[in-house]
């Protein structure tokens, strides 16, 4: 009998790549500053609620999460990570800003480098018996992990350094509740 997705997640070995919660407050200024949230789009009240729910669901489902939670340097991704996982250290990783840049006007060479680096990062296995959570951004359609809804999660199975990764499934935030009933 094939194991359910939830059973596999409880064993660990996956990367949960999630887009931040709904961000409708403000706009990203042309020369935004990572240290100044007023120059960025920030989480709405719904986005904050989504983040809290996301963390609650992963805890309820007893999915083991490794520390630290990795977040893009934007205020909306950091706040999402902190609200979802209040008891786990959040590590800000500037690499994930590159995913945001994929949606902008960049050269084919820069896009290729970002996607090559992404493949290398997503090939790395998390600590034994745990899953790694990354809170960052959606991708343009057909690129990288593709379009991701607010707090949607792409479940990635790393194959080890130099061996790539497999996309197992993409879940919308509402799908997390369905996992509980799949057991």
TrEMBL record:
Gene3D superfamilies: Phosphoglycerate mutase-like. It comes from the Bacteria. InterPro entries: His_Pase_superF_clade-1 (IPR013078), His_PPase_superfam (IPR029033). This is Histidine phosphatase family protein. It comes from Lysinibacillus parviboronicapiens.
């Amino acid at each position: 009998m094939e194991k359910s997705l939830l059973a596999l997640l409880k064993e660990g070995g996956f990367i949960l790549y999630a887009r931040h919660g709904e961000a409708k407050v403000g706009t990203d200024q042309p020369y935004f500053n990572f240290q100044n949230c007023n120059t960025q789009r920030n989480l709405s009240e719904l986005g904050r609620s989504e983040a809290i729910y996301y963390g609650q669901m992963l805890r309820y489902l007893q999915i083991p999460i490794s520390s630290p939670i990795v977040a893009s340097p934007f205020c909306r991704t950091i706040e999402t990570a902190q609200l979802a996982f209040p008891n786990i250290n959040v590590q800000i990783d500037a690499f994930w800003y590159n995913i945001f840049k994929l949606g902008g006007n960049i050269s084919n060479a820069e896009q290729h480098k970002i996607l090559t680096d992404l493949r290398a990062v997503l090939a790395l296995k998390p600590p034994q018996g745990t899953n790694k959570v990354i809170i960052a951004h959606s991708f343009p359609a057909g690129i990288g992990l593709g379009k991701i809804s607010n707090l949607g999660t792409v479940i990635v199975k790393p194959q080890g350094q130099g061996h790539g990764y497999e996309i197992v499934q993409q879940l919308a935030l509402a799908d997390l509740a369905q996992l509980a009933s799949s057991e």
